[in-house]
Amino acid sequence: SGYKKTTEKAHGQIEIREYYQTEETAWIYQKKQWKGLKSIGMEKKTIRRGETEKEEYRYYISSLCEDIELFSRAVRGHWAVESMHWHLDVTFKEDANTTLDKTAAQNQNIIRKWCLSMLKLIEIRGTKMSLRRKRFNISFAPAQFIEELMKI
Q1: 98: helix, coil or strand?
Q2: Are the CB atoms for 115 and 134 separated by under 8 Å?
Q3: DSSP classification of residue 97
Q4: What is the rounded CA–CA span in Å between residue 43 and residue 19?
Q5: Distance between start and end Cα atoms, the chain
Q6: If 1 and its partner were Cys, which of 14, 22, 98, 110 is the partner (CB 3.0–4.6 Å)?
Q7: DSSP 3-state assignment of 32?
Q8: What is the SS3 assignment for 136?
């Protein structure tokens, strides 16, 4: 069985991630229904902020052979993609998009991702502003923010 532990400081908190992976899957009920199942894994995430501590557990079935480095990167990559989709929906209401033309919808998605990356680069002095709020503020004075982006 594979095991990996990482510790990171981020956003004023300490995040400890423990990854477990095993190919021992014989005990899984109805294993045959999971075509290509080669391993199972778990991520235990412990978040420490001051005196408080919170634990989260996520479980995975996988077609990967046991390789804890690859498994941990796949887990982190999956949640990075989920986070980006969440930001796109909250900031641009992407899930409400009803564009039927496939090419137009793809182009809009690319533009929203590009805008999201620019919003993350823009610092509005003295404020911790959500991306949605930044988007709203920029709509009133776009030239000012374009100048700021060009300096980066």
Answers
A1: coil
A2: no
A3: -
A4: 5
A5: 46
A6: 22
A7: helix
A8: helix
Digit-coded pLDDT (tens) for 125-140: 555 667 777 777 677 6
Q: What is the DSSP string of 42-96?
A: EEEEEEEETTEEEEEEEEEEESS-S-HHHHHHHHHHHHHHHHHHHHHHHHH-GGG
* pLDDT tens column, 46-79: 999 989 999 999 999 888 899 998 888 888 876 6
Tokens of 65: 């052979």
Q: Which residue, 98, 81, 88, is CA-closest to 135?
A: 88
Classified as helix, coil or strand, 99 is coil
**For 141, phi and psi rounded to 5 degrees?**
-145, 65
Name the pTM for this structure: 0.56
Helix (H) or strand (E) holding 123: none
